[in-house]
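[DERIVE STRUCTURE TOKENS]
===
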Amino acid sequence: MSTSRVILAGSHREPAQADEYFGLANPLEQIYVTVVVRRKAEPMPIGLYSNYMSAEEYFSAHGASANDFIAIRAFAAEYNLEPRNENAATRTVELFGTVGDLSRAFGVTLNHVRIDDRIHRVREGSITIPAELHGRMIAVLGLDDRRVAEPHSRKREPGGSEPAASGGGFTPVQVAQLYNFPPKLNGSGQTIAIIELDGGFIQSDISTYFKGLGLPAPTVSAVLIDGQTNAINKHLPQFPKLNADDEVALDIQVAGAVAPAAKQLVYFCLNTDQSFLKAVNAAVQAKPAPVAVSISWGGPEMLTKRPNGDAAGHTDQAKTAMDQALQDAANLNIPVFVATGDNGSFDGTVSLSVDFPASSPHAVACGGTTLAGSGSTISSEVAWNGSGGGVSQFFAKPAYQSAITMPPIPAGSKTGGRGTPDVCGNADPNTGYKVLVKGVAQTIGGTSAVAPLWAGLSACLGQGLGKPVGFLNTLLYPSAVSSKALHDITSGNNDSQGKGGPYSAGPGWDACTGLGSPNGVALLTALKASGPSHGTGSTGTHHPGTGSTGTHGTGTAHFDFPVLPPPVAAPAPAAPSPLSTILAGGSNSVALVGIVGLAAVVGIVASTGIVATVALSNDKK
């Protein structure tokens, strides 16, 4: 491989705002990174009526190329790195080695700092890679292991005001009744996946809580990723703000009360972009496939600052990798419900910001309301002012939102346009959910509760349909469906920080509550009438069309994508040996150095109208 190097697009990192600096990381320390490679071919934007493909066919068409893995192996060998756990479906390979070797391989300097109660390994600036790998690598995650997300739950404050009809909070069963969830469905035969980046649960809470509701306790199993544990009180008493046991209890108990017969798999991963992606991939790839995935964690979408000066946000490469994982889920008929955050339209930063991964166009973004009612009658429902929402500055406006008039993209942004949230539900902690945390009854809200609420509803819907629920956004956005299956929220705002946030609830979609809160029975009726847009599990899965010639079997598929921007040159570390023969073009070479992520494709095409034809082979060279 030549010594010429380029910047890995989207890999820029801001300096860490640390409590203490320790200097360079030990060059002999053993770590690993996750490399995400490009797809063989990009799926077309997801639509309502599409082709059917099995999971095996889908990943055969859109998984990783064997030749890209071969190139990564050769690159790894040059820097004394050991490739492990190649996964063509997730398009990931893990490279193990020392800090020193990985630093040379990716042109970075790694330092150790203390942030709160943990020593972190951090970098700043951009990653560089050999020029021959430009376009092959989508992301390199794990060099920097600082926290990237926070739980979106809020406890009810003592003496907090609430509508009289809420009685200081609801059980999840009462909320389900107010939202007209199908009364005879309990999620039997379904599996719900829940992603947790910290915290833990105890079985005694589950047993006691559901006994108090008069319901059978759901089967809840922990799946541990990257050495994370299912343990309570990890950060107490020194750092209570990092304690996530409340979040875990809320997710399990809300989903379980709505769908007590559904199995729950709780994926505990580390709070890093690397481990977060690994957990989502594990959930989406699980067999049997989950009927829904619930994520109640997130952070500001763009690299920005919090009011105290701390850096916040996700790198572009991490956003692209996660969005592609969520796109896989959508194409496999697995809706991923993601909380939009509890800090209003500024998302706890100094400027307008949406929360990620809720801002991914392949997530069902869940905003929040203040709910009042009793029995099956809603007396009032307005936007909760803490509900995250707004307009993405990274992801383009998806096709399913084409009929929506979006607010302007925040000032200073040249890309984006995807609006959040998509749906909503009760989230105000003053009208929150009565749960049990480490033996103590509490009322907790936040958009964190809305994601498992919708996931539990999906388990009931999947049971009623006898097939996967599918990616709901494409079904819900047509007004003929949303007007019947959702309660439109028309008052309130999400200016919780008092900074003059511009978003208010109103008729139709809005940046506080999306399309509205659920009417479960009406939604089930709409899904039954939705026809071919939903697959049937083992016999096929919803898949957006990929061109008239297809992408599997023999022959060449043709797609229209804009040309990848030219690589940005970077200083080159020493590279011990050439690798040109591995990367030489062959009979099925690509007419382009690489393919950008789908979100970027849609954004560039939408904003410029520039189209370039790219011939793709089944196995890229």
Remarks:
- The chain has 14 helices and 34 strands.
- The radius of gyration is 23 Å.
- The chain has two domains: 5-146+570-587, 150-543.
- Residues 316-331 form the longest helix (16 residues).
